Amino acid sequence: MPAIYPDSVLMIFCKAPIPGQVKTRLQPALNAEQAAAAHRQLTYMTLERAFQQPLCAVELHCAPDAGHSFFQDCARRYPLTLKGQYGADLGERMHHAFADALGRYRHALLMGCDCPSLSSDDLLRALAVLHKGHDAVIAPADDGGYVLIGLNETQPRLFSDMSWGHDQVMATTRSRANEMGLNLYELDSQWDVDTYSDWLRYSAM
């Protein structure tokens, strides 16, 4: 089935599910192995959403690289492309991903792999917003960050000198976009799985 937006790409950032290195805030309620299993489960959930509709090309951006067996399994299960993440911090990695993607596509979305509230229809709406001429689209998170961002052009200032993980990330991004004169569209606020209470909320869905 042809993609709804063949000139667009959805980039999903994901870490290799190495025990002790992912979803550490779910510990000690979950042990390291269980937290890594939770990470794998959330990633598969995200990929299911990404392919629920034939939206656009999908890329899984892997850290530390695409060689882990989990990423290879994802590529066998889903028609996606594996990419590496490059940069010293999250902001650099995000900017690099957009710079690369927007050299190949007209529109690009970037999201993480742990947001159960972000639906396939939300992704469709985000792509539609970019096509209608908004410079950027973003899905705020209840914790003060954001879970998705989309751009038509690279905007390095949105990603530089940012205290990632801080509860002012969305507010700072919104302020910078305003100062830059960007026409920013905000989706409904979302929640992601950071803490054990978030995991319980997801598990009850």
TrEMBL record:
SUPFAM superfamilies named among the record's database cross-references: Nucleotide-diphospho-sugar transferases
PANTHER family listed in its UniProt record: GLYCOSYLTRANSFERASE, SLL1095 PROTEIN
Superkingdom, taxonomy of origin: Bacteria
The protein, known as: TIGR04282 family arsenosugar biosynthesis glycosyltransferase
Listed InterPro entries: Nucleotide-diphossugar_trans, Trfase_1_rSAM/seldom-assoc
One matching Pfam family: DUF2064
Gene3D superfamilies for the chain: Spore Coat Polysaccharide Biosynthesis Protein SpsA, Chain A
